[in-house]
Each structure stands twice: as C-alpha cells, then as structure tokens.
C-alpha cells in the first residue's frame, strides 16, 4: 500500500515537472495570443475552467491517476499557467519594449487598469488626474495602455476633427443585450445610428418642447412650495427636487407623457434616480476594466442595471403600445413614426437600450449642473444679486400676471444669465472620462508621438480649471469672465476648452435643449423666490460629498430655503 502511494507520488512529481514546464510554455503562448487577439473576460474564464476540467479528465482516464491527483495536477498546471500570464504581463507593461514606456506615471497605474477603475470609483478622478499632471507633466500614463493628455491642443484631434478617434472599450456595457447610440464605438456605425437620433434635436423640434419644459418648471415651483411647508426653517432638499424635475421632464420629452413619471409628486419611491446613478457608476467604473465588467455582469451587483433596463423597457413599451405620445417626442424618431424618416426598425433589445439612455442622458446631467448652479449662486451673493437684478429688469411684470411663460428670445438676450450658464457648465459638468483609441498609424498629440491603439483622454475638469484656459481665479465662480472686458485686463476665457458636451461625432445631441432648460429653471426659480442656503446646511459636508463618476452624486444634499418674492 505504502509503496504504491510512493510510486504514485513519484509519478505525480515527474508529471508535475513536465506539466509545470508545459504550463509556463502555455502561459507564454497565451500572453502572445491575448496580445494579438484580445478576448472578452467571461469567455476567457469559461475557457480556463473548461480546460481545468478537461485536464482533470485527461489525468484520470488517460494517465490513470486517481481523481484527486488528476484534479490537483490540472489545477497546479493552470496555477503555473496563470502565474506566468500575470508575471509576463506585468514585466511587459513595465519594460522598455512596451509602446508607452517613455510616458511617466505612477507604477501601479502602469501595471494595472484596476487603479484607474478605483480612481473613478472614489468619485475624485477629476481631482486626482490634474494632480497627476502637476506631478508628471502633460502626458501621464494612467493605465497600462492609457494616457491622459492635459493639453488644449489635443482636444481637436481626439474629439472634434473629421478624423476624431473611436470610443474605447470603456463603452462596452458588460454583456447587456442590444446596442445603443452612446455605446457604439466605431465612427461609421455610430454615425448611422446618430442619423436616427439627430432629427429629434433639430431646432424646430427642440423649440416645440418648450411647452413641456415650461409646464414642468411650473410643477417644480409648486413642488418647492409644497416641500418647504411645515418643515423646520422651510428647508427643502433642492438637489432632490431638481433631480425629480429632470426625470419628469425627460419622461415627457422622450415618451411624450406615456412615461407618466411624476417624481415631483411621488418623491421617487421606486428609487429611479438612485438606480439611474448607480447604473451610470457601474458603466463608468467597470468601463475602465472591460474584461472584469464581463465577469461582474453575472454578479448581483449589476442587478440594479437590470432593474433600470426593465424600467426602460416598460417605458418604451408603454409608448409603443399605449395611446399616449407626441409626434415630436424622442421615441417617435426611434420608433420610425415619421414618414419621411423611416429607418430599419430597431430590435426590442436595442429599443430598450436606447430608451434607457434616452431618459438618463438628459436627466441626471442637467440636474447635476443645475444643482451646482444653485450651490455657486447661493454661496456667491454678489453674482446671485446681479443675476436677479438682470431678470427683474427683463421681466418686470413677472408677478403681476398669471401667464408666467418666459419668452425664449428674451432669455437668450440676457448676457449675465448666459454667462452664469457658461460658468455653471465650466464648474459643474459631471466630468466623464471620454476615452478614445488612437488610430493604428499613431498620432502626434501635444507634441509627442502616441502609438496606435493607445487609449487617450483629455480630462475635462483639468482643462476647464486650467489657468492657461481660464484666468484669473480659474477655480472661482465668476460669470463676469464670459462678458466683454472679462475680469479685467489679461483675462483669459477660452471657450474651446469647455468640454461639457464634448465635441464631434460623439458629442451631446441635447446641448441646445440642456442650455434652454437651464435658462428656464434658473430664471423662473430666481424670479419666483428669494433663495438662501438653509441654516441646517453644512457647506463643508456638501463640498466633501460631491463625487463625480460621469454622474454628479451629492452624498450630502443642497439644502435651501425659498421665500416667495411677492
Ligand atoms: C447639462 C446637461 C448635459 C451635459 C453636461 C451633457 C453631456 C454630454 C456628453 C459629455 C456627452 C458625450 C459623452 C461621451 O462621449 O462619453 C453626451 C452625449 C449625449 N447626450 Fe448629453 N449632456 C447633457 C444633457 C443632455 C440632454 C438634455 C439630452 C437630451 C436627451 C442629451 C442627449 C445626449 C445624447 C443623445 C448623447 C449621445 C450622442 C452620441 O453618442 O452621438 N444630453 N452628453
């Protein structure tokens, strides 16, 4: 008995040696293979698991080892294999033969994308990336194959030119079924889908949505009054109220009322706003590690995404098969209801993805900037007073009539209002990563050659607060910088460095709508009420609680008190 055990152990050792060599060899082969033919994360793990099982079966039935030793031999083979893959990958990423070797960056970022994902997860990417640029210079290696380039000159070639770069795999949403405008990476395919969306944003269509926006702004005014009644100091959670407004108005614009969203009244008991934010965060964080996203997709943590998918499916179903809708809502274009613009019908999966994006693209973004707008105005009384004076002078009869519709032309003609909107966009955009892929031939970016296939990004916050683009006081809320004369002689205000809506083929289609909405909400709320921050509000907690992961999350709300002006 004991001699047979010894023999078996000896055989195992012998086979282990040859197997470990084979494992290292196969590991090396795998590194080369994956380098040439990148695979999805879930497919790779499934292949490894299958190979482990096949190895164990081979050991048991061909080599005639016991079940235990064949399983152990197979597992040890793949442990060596995995160790080789990881070691060689790390060494390669740090070695002079890596195409990005000459670009500086923190050691851990050069080794793994997990560090970048973690940075996004903290919600402080917009602060960390500029700090890295301060330390390392214009080009920083923020991931094994990722460069952040802090240069105004890089914005046009990467995003805005006719040869702008395609989106990176950060836009691959795990294993979600169906595709959507926002997630399509290639320029040609994306342009084709954009042609379906774009007519919905023609000026005449957007102008037609004025009645919807106006009606919801009146609802917001009433909501503010209601929420301030019977509570200490009349404090309202302004960030929440604005978020609820933004969902309601986007429900109208996207589904022509078929969505019957009424969060300003219901208070969002289903948690759609937080569900939407978590979904955005999942996409933004895991987008930095797409292979991991493929795996995590199957875990309960992405349940919220599926809940939001169902929400989106219900909305588009209600619009498609219900009786409600408008002939100019966004859904009417996606569903091909316009005779002159009949596209190939979209699949149910694709409609769901478009529907999910359609409502979120315009809600959280706009409400985030508006919350920042009120934060800046309420903490800068001089600027707030100047805006209120301008509005009072433009609409002297605002309180005397029941019809408080504000004319678009009149709003557009107000210089200080426009300056405030520009300044709020500069300091309040939910700063995304905007990663793009350099074409195979490589490119000169900010005076350095960047190899083809590199993922590059210009960080919006770094550009929008850079003294080279905005000076003096680049971090201060100073709408005056946008007016003739600026902040005095030597003022620098570089509009082209505003990346709020991005540029080029992938840029925001809702820009005009968003600006129109901001003008409406700011004007109505300031004309109707005198605003102060609530005595219960803690400014430091608010500022510390701001996290940016493509969506702006206010962990601690903006608490304000609104007193009717007449
Ligand atoms: C202040 C509010 C808004 C901001 C800051 C904003 C910002 C952006 C940005 C930065 C992108 C490009 C994202 C990327 O490439 O990763 C984008 C795309 C987009 N936005 Fe907005 N957005 C806002 C409001 C809206 C509104 C109200 C709508 C209306 C539905 C909208 C619709 C879209 C669409 C359809 C795209 C995708 C465009 C494409 O891929 O071709 N956005 N937005």
TrEMBL record:
The alphabetical list of record keywords is:
Heme, Iron, Membrane, Metal-binding, Monooxygenase, Oxidoreductase, Transmembrane, Transmembrane helix
**Which pathway is recorded for this entry?**
Secondary metabolite biosynthesis; terpenoid biosynthesis
Subcellular location(s): the record lists: Membrane
GO MF annotation: an example:
heme binding
* Name used for this protein in its record: Cytochrome P450
Species in which this protein is naturally found = Mycena maculata
Listed transmembrane segments: 20-37, 44-63, 75-94
Single GO cellular component term:
membrane
Family named by the database record: Belongs to the cytochrome P450 family.
Task: Name the coenzymes or cofactors required.
Answer: heme
Is Metal-binding there in the keyword field?
A: yes
Q: Which domain of life is it from?
A: Eukaryota
**Keyword hit for Iron:** yes
């Amino acid at each position: 008995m004991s001699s047979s055990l010894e023999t078996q152990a000896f055989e195992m050792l012998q086979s282990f040696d040859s197997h470990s060599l084979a494992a290292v060899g196969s590991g090396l082969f795998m590194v080369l293979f994956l380098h040439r033919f990148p695979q999805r994360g879930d497919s790779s793990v499934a292949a490894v698991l299958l190979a482990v099982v096949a190895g164990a079966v081979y050991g048991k039935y061909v080599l005639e080892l016991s079940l235990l030793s064949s399983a152990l031999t197979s597992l040890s083979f793949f442990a060596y294999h995995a160790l080789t893959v990881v070691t060689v990958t790390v060494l390669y990423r740090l070695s002079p033969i890596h195409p990005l070797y000459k670009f500086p960056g923190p050691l851990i970022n050069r080794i793994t994308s997990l560090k970048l994902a973690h940075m996004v997860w903290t919600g402080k990417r917009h602060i960390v990336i500029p700090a890295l640029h301060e330390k390392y210079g214009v080009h920083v290696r923020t991931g094994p194959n990722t460069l952040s380039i802090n240069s105004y000159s890089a914005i046009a070639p990467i995003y805005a030119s006719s040869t702008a770069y395609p989106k990176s795999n950060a836009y691959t949403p795990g294993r979600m079924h169906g595709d959507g405008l926002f997630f399509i990476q290639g320029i040609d395919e994306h342009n084709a889908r954009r042609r379906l969306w774009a007519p919905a944003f023609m000026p005449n269509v957007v102008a037609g949505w004025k009645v919807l926006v106006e009606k919801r702004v009146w609802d917001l005014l009433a909501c503010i009054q209601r929420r301030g009644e019977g509570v200490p100091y009349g404090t309202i959670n302004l960030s929440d109220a604005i978020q609820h407004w933004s969902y309601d108005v986007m429900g109208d614009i996207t589904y022509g009322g078929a969505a019957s969203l009424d969060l300003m009244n219901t208070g969002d008991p289903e948690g759609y706003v937080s569900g939407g934010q978590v979904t955005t965060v999942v996409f933004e964080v895991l987008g930095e590690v797409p292979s991991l996203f493929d795996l995590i997709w199957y875990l309960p943590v992405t349940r919220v995404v599926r809940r939001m998918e169902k929400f989106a499916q219900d909305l588009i179903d209600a619009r498609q098969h219900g009786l409600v809708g408008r002939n100019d809502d966004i859904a009417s274009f996606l569903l091909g209801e316009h005779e002159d613009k009949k596209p190939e019908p979209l699949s149910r999966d694709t409609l769901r993805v478009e529907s999910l994006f359609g409502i979120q693209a315009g809600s959280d973004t706009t409400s985030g900037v508006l919350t920042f707008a009120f934060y800046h105005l309420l903490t800068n009384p001089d600027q707030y007073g100047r805006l209120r004076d301008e509005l009072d002078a433009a609409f002297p009869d605002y309180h005397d009539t029941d019809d408080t519709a504000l004319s678009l032309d009149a709003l557009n003609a107000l210089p200080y209002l426009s300056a405030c909107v520009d300044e709020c966009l500069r300091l309040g955009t939910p700063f995304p990563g905007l990663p793009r892929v350099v074409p195979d031939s490589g490119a000169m970016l900010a005076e350095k050659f960047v190899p083809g296939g590199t993922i590059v990004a210009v960080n919006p916050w770094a550009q929008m607060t850079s003294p080279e683009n905005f000076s003096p006081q680049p971090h201060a809320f100073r709408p005056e910088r946008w007016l003739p004369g600026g902040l005095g002689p030597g003022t620098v205000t570089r509009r082209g460095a505003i990346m709020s809506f991005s540029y080029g083929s992938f840029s925001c289609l809702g820009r005009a709508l968003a600006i129109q909405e901001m003008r409406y909400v700011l004007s109505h709320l300031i004309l109707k009420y005198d605003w102060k921050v609530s005595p219960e509000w803690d400014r430091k907690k608010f500022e510390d609680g701001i996290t940016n992961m493509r969506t702006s999350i206010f962990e601690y709300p903006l608490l304000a008190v609104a007193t009717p002006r007449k």
